[in-house]
Amino acid sequence: MAQVLDTLEAARAAASDQQWRAAYVSFSTLGERELAPEDLETYAEAAWWNGQLDEAISLRERAHAEYTAAGDPLGAARMALVLAWDYEGRGSFAVSNGWLASAERILDGLPEAPEHGRLLLLKGIAALFAEGDLERAVELFEETFELASRVGDRDVQMLALSGKGRAFIKAGEIERGLALLDEATASAMCGDIRPHAAGLVYCVTISSCQDLGDVRRAAEWTEAANRWCDRLDVTGFPGACRIHRAEVLRIRGDWPAAEAQALAACEELLDFDRSITAGGHYEIGEIRRRQGNFAGAEEAYRVSNELGRDPQPGLALLRLAEGKVDAATAGITRALDETTDPLSRLRRLPARVEIAIAAGDLRAARAAADEMEGIIDSYKIGERRAAAFDALLHFARGRILLAEGDSEGAASALKRARDEWQGVGAPYETAQARLTLGIAFRRLGDEHAAAAELEGALGAFERLGAKLDEARAQELLGRVEARRTFLFTDIVDSTKLAQTLGDDKWQRLLARHDELAGQAIAESGGEVVKQTGDGFFASFDNPRAALDAAVAMQRALAAEIIAPDVRIGVHAGGAFRTGADGADYGGQGVHVAARVGAAARGGEILASADTVDGVGGSFRLSQPRTETLKGVAEPVDLVSVDWH
Predict the structure, then answer these.
(1) pLDDT value of residue 633
(2) How far apart are alpha carbons 236 and 147 in whole angstroms?
(3) Which of 234, 484, 592, 619 has its CA 20 to 30 A from that of 103?
(4) pTM of the predicted protein model
(5) Per CATH, the architecture of 482-642 is what?
């Protein structure tokens, strides 16, 4: 008996000093012995901090029963509130609501106590995150803070302050919100509140800074939070800190370390909080997508989705990288249709811009950029925009201007994006801006500046391990073959038509043809490589954009009173940059595309069957026909695209 009492006292002493690992070991050696409800509560806390959530829940349920039997309603209510939190984190919302209702029933009519403050706190959290009722959330957090102040519960005071700050930020009252978060987080740093409350305050502050694009501030608080986590020497809850650390490491460009942190976090958190674990898997997907590990990214996004997190915009960008433009468009459109919260929309809109440009829908891209700017302006910190938000916006604007053919305007916007991302300390985003800026400089005829930007981007992509981006930079520098979609047009019987019309009328007709064809290519995001007498050779990032341009071209010509018959060929394949300024293309993909164009009839859009695979659902296609093309060893399956 004396040994049992010594062990129990050792467990109590360790818990009192927050040495949760030692406390758990001591409690565990007691086996199934009868324990007072207070000891069951402490044992459960030790199990929780050691990653044993099932055991913690079982012990808390036992403690609730023992408190009830002992006639201690506050103890019973306290356990009910903690159990409501445990089950909510696991996604068992009905069970969580049951425990919350039980706590409210027990506390009804009792004198004011800390447990009343905790009940109000949970209601405020539900109003903020589950219901999105910001005004009600602020009211509940204020009521919680006042009650906690009266009963002397510092943990609940700071959690209420943190929740109120988060609500203010979501409502656009940025400075008021950040001031409250700073106050709460200062208490966490100086040890003024207990570890669990401190961890929650850190998480709310870091998430808020990330939402506001204040990357440096988020990184500073993350480092502070991780020092705090490392001192605890426990598992489980600190996994949330590891996810924040993974996000910071990803932004700073240390992707292997970021993935390792996120994987460790997901292992620790799985039983604790499904939503945070889902966020961890999403972060893993983001890292792997940038690395070009599409299968790994797909799996991470799938798990994230299963755990309840929408895998957008990452999954849509993955589909775009795979060349599945229709699927990418559908995914990002659905994600935006289902999202009304401005900050949530802001996380998705840059992907909308990128995907819309790839699909040749520049109107949608501009609309998304305009909405981005409106949201960013409404979430300024003081009188300034967050640097990361400004960089996002200038990068989006630069891409759109480049697609519209305004290379000078694009270069101006992209230089700002490059410099802003450098200031943030985000090497991948900086390299993306540099690569796109290099394209803009090349179109302006400044090959020296273009090469400098492309070389800088290539070096960064190589260091980061961004394989696809690295290949794209090398392709633009003329060093490797890359896959592009090419479009060739040709006026049918142009010589005979010129003789019939005469030089003057023919030149006017040809000028109008050139205007309409060039416009269709530019509006679909294409690049006119060169004009081939009475036709065009154009390059596109993906098949969908090329087909959209071809359809727009035929429809525009058909609307003219007098217009020539034009044949169009489209093919996606490998090619490489050629020419002194790298503005031309060569390779088998170009050769096949030219031959496909030559095989088309007047007024026809002809494409290789492989090219339309994955995007054909957006167009009416003929049955494939097999033809042998001049200079191409194997027969090629071709389909006609109905543009009428």
Answers:
(1) 64
(2) 30
(3) 234
(4) 0.68
(5) 2-Layer Sandwich (3.30)
